[in-house]
C-alpha cells in the first residue's frame, strides 16, 4: 500500500507594500510553505536546528532557523476575536444560524498551540528585525522567513527575485553582525 503525499496547508499572507518601501497597498496571496527548488533556492533544504540557548557565535544559518521558527510560532498563535482585547463593552456569543452548527457537526479544526519555550524564543527573536536598518532588507528577511517564494516577494515589491535574495542576505548579514559579540 503506497502512502499518500502529505500536502502542507497554504498560508494567506497579507502585508502592505509599495515600491518605495512606504505602506499603501494590501497584498493578499495564498502561498504554500517554502521549499527549495530550482533557481529560487535561497536557503539550505534542511535548516539548522534551533538551539535552546544562544550560541557563542551566530551564523547566518542559525539566524535564518531562528527567524523561520519565530514565523511558524506566529502562525500557531490564535488570531480570533478572543485573542485580542475587545473594543466592545459586551460580547455576545455568535448566533447559530443552522441546526447542524448547534451540535458541532461543522468542520472540526485542530490547532497546534506553541509551547512556552517557543513563545519565549519568539519574544527574543522578534526585536532582532529592528536591528536591520533598511526597510526593504527587513521585509525580504521576513518574507523568506515566512516561507514565501522569492518571486512572490519580488513581484510584491516590483523587483527581481535576485534582488530579493541579495536584500535577504544583506539583512541576515546585518543581524549576524549585530548579534555576534565584538572580537
Your description of this structure?
Helices cover 38% and strands 8% of the residues. By secondary structure, it is mainly alpha-helical. α5 packs across α6. The protein starts with 10 loop residues before the first strand and ends with a helix. The relative contact order is 0.16. About 10% of the residues have low confidence.
Report the sheet-strand fraction. 5-15%
Number of strands: 2
Helix content: 25-40%
Helical region count?
Answer: 6
Uncertain spans, ≥5 residues at pLDDT below 50? 4-9, 23-29, 42-47
Q: What series of H and E elements makes up the topology? A: EEHHHHHH
> Radius of gyration from the CA trace?
19 Å
Mass-distribution shape: globular
- Structural class computed from helices and strand pairing: mainly alpha
Main sheet summary: 2 strands, antiparallel
Distance between the amino and carboxyl termini:
57 Å
Mean pLDDT value: 74
Strand order of the largest sheet: 1-2
Topology:
Elements: E1 11-17, E2 25-31, H1 60-76, H2 99-102, H3 116-125, H4 135-146, H5 150-157, H6 161-179
Antiparallel strand pairs: 1-2
State the gist of this model.
This protein has helices at residues 60-76, 99-102, 116-125, 135-146, 150-157, 161-179, and strands at 11-17, 25-31. By secondary structure, it is mainly alpha-helical.
Index terms:
two-stranded antiparallel sheet, 183 residues, single chain, mainly alpha
